[in-house]
Specification:
The protein is α/β, with parallel strands linked by helices. The chain is 42% helix and 15% strand. The chain has an eight-stranded parallel beta barrel with strand order 1-2-3-4-5-6-7-8, surrounded by six helices. The structure holds phosphoenolpyruvate.
Length: 256
């Protein structure tokens, strides 16, 4: 990572895996394996039923805890949803917004991503907004247009003065859970497009300070080559984050 103002962030997206007991065992095993890397922010994203247990298991450690999704309203008749107030009340500090699996299976749109982003910023949660193109869009040379649209709608009406915690995760859909990783060059090019769009939508100062993570089949052996590029400020890791040894290696390799 190039910029000393952007601390590397490595996040573990556990998706719909791990009971509370399994999440706590992971956290207890991971803490000594990972050691302390003051230049890396580590975030665990368990399922909703494990959030409180992971917050407790990670107490006294710089590890932070993220929800995988949230509603944008504080409360209401929305069965099955979780509000930002509920997340804050149990010590959650970060939230994933607009993961491609939410977009694909649960009708998440750029508009709901925008509402959730505004809500996260208003509540002091660090938002990790996921964007990325499908394979057909890449093959049709539409990647830049797709990314610009996703980022510009997500950032619509956001006050640049309040947007500093913003994190974006570039996750090409064709690379998620497929074992097919974007080359560092592909990822770097996409990150530059995203950074330019942040400059256009908000400000060049914010574009320079916003962390942009890469996600899509990150493993211990490719983490270092992805994380060392100028515009890549960390990783969002799915499959390889389920095992404490593998995730600890990714953290260590990204810190190197
Ligand atoms: C993800 O779920 O955000 C992800 C990147 O998954 P994987 O690392 O398994 O591709």
């Amino acid at each position: 990572m190039s910029s000393p103002t952007r601390k590397t962030l490595i996040a573990a997206n556990w998706k719909m895996y791990k009971t509370p007991a399994e999440s706590v065992s992971f956290t207890r095993a991971f803490i000594p394996l990972a050691g302390r890397h003051p230049n890396v922010e580590v975030v665990l994203c368990p399922s909703p039923t494990s959030l409180a247990a992971v917050v407790e298991a990670a107490a006294n450690n710089p590890i932070r805890v993220a929800a995988q999704d949230m509603h944008w309203l504080d409360q209401g008749a929305y069965t099955g949803e979780t509000s930002p107030l509920m997340l804050k009340a149990i010590g959650v500090t970060h939230v994933l917004i607009g993961h491609s699996e939410r977009r694909q299976y649960f009708n998440e749109t750029d508009t709901t991503v925008n509402l959730k982003l505004k809500s996260a910023l208003a509540h002091g949660l660090v938002p990790i907004v996921c964007v990325g193109e499908h394979l057909a869009q890449r093959e049709a040379n539409q990647t830049a247009d797709v990314l610009k649209l996703q980022v510009s709608v997500a950032l619509e009406g956001i006050d640049p003065a309040a947007a500093h915690p913003l994190v974006i995760a570039y996750e090409p859909v064709w690379a998620i859970g497929t074992g097919r990783t974007a080359t560092p060059e592909i990822a770097d090019e996409a990150h530059k497009i995203i950074r330019a769009q942040i400059a256009q939508s908000l400000s060049s100062q914010l574009a320079a300070s916003t962390r942009i993570l890469y996600g899509g089949s990150v493993k211990p052996d490719n983490a270092a080559s992805l994380c060392c590029l100028d515009d890549i400020d960390g990783a969002l890791v799915g499959g390889a984050s389920l095992d404490p040894t593998s995730f600890a290696q990714i953290v260590a390799n990204s810190a190197a």
